[in-house]
Design a protein that fits this description.
7 helices, elongated
Length: 238
């Protein structure tokens, strides 16, 4: 775990700029829906994308998106919970608290907005869904989980995988007609800033916690080498 984790500080200005920009997009979309949930100004864009993406349906893509439908909400929540447990087991309580707080904050915010706006889902959905289309719970929870991983691991391939996974989930939700395109954009622009703002408060403690763990592991390795060097050699069998 020590070698896997490598959290790094992100400049405050960069975090705030990205969070502000994305929250603004989410607020604009939510405000338009609040003004007219049945016919928001972007409804034409939603219908155009829905017509395009559903035209690509085939047995192959149906199977992949059926898997993403299962993995993208309950599956991601389970993985997020396992991440918290793993961090606690490896004595990373601060990283565990950050991870748990990020997951819970995004989940609660998503459900509150769904209940407040009560946007209708696309009429031809092919999967079971709950009420409230905006924002997408699948996209929000997926974005939160992969962003937490990316922040804690701070490796280029993890950031790329996180971006690809989130985009794949956004496409999947519209492919299955479970959400409109703007539902997925709103979910992304809600989840990412919430995680980033939490990271702004926790990044210092998470970085120092991991640094201390690395120092302890290094000290233990050196102590083990010294003990082996000081041990008397075993006599050869007669």
């Amino acid at each position: 775990m020590t070698r896997v984790l490598d959290p790094r500080r992100v400049p405050t200005g960069r975090l705030l700029a990205a969070s502000t920009a994305m929250l603004t997009v989410a607020a604009v979309l939510g405000g338009m829906l609040l003004a007219d949930v049945a016919r928001p100004p972007f409804l034409g864009l939603d219908h155009a994308w829905a017509g395009f993406i559903t035209g690509l349906r085939s047995p192959f893509w149906d199977g992949i998106n059926a898997f993403l439908n299962i993995a993208g909400y309950r599956g991601v929540l389970v993985l997020h919970g396992l991440l918290v447990v793993a961090l606690l087991a490896r004595r990373r309580p601060r990283a565990a608290v950050f991870s748990a707080a990020a997951g819970v904050a995004v989940l609660v915010a998503t459900q509150l907005l769904k209940a407040a706006l009560q946007r209708e889902r696309p009429p031809n959905t092919v999967v079971l869904t709950d009420t409230g289309s905006f924002p997408s719970g699948h996209v929000a929870t997926t974005a939160a989980f992969v962003l937490v991983l990316a922040l804690l691991m701070a490796k280029a391939w993890v950031w790329l995988a996180a971006g690809a996974g989130t985009v794949a989930m956004m496409i999947s939700r519209t492919y299955l007609s479970a959400h409109w395109l703007t539902d997925t954009v709103g979910a992304l622009c809600l989840a990412v800033p919430l995680v980033l703002l939490l990271w702004l408060g926790w990044q210092g403690s998470c970085v120092s916690e991991n640094t201390d763990a690395r120092r302890l592991l290094s000290w233990r390795a050196r102590a083990s080498r010294r003990r082996r060097a000081a041990a008397p050699p075993e006599s050869a069998p007669r």
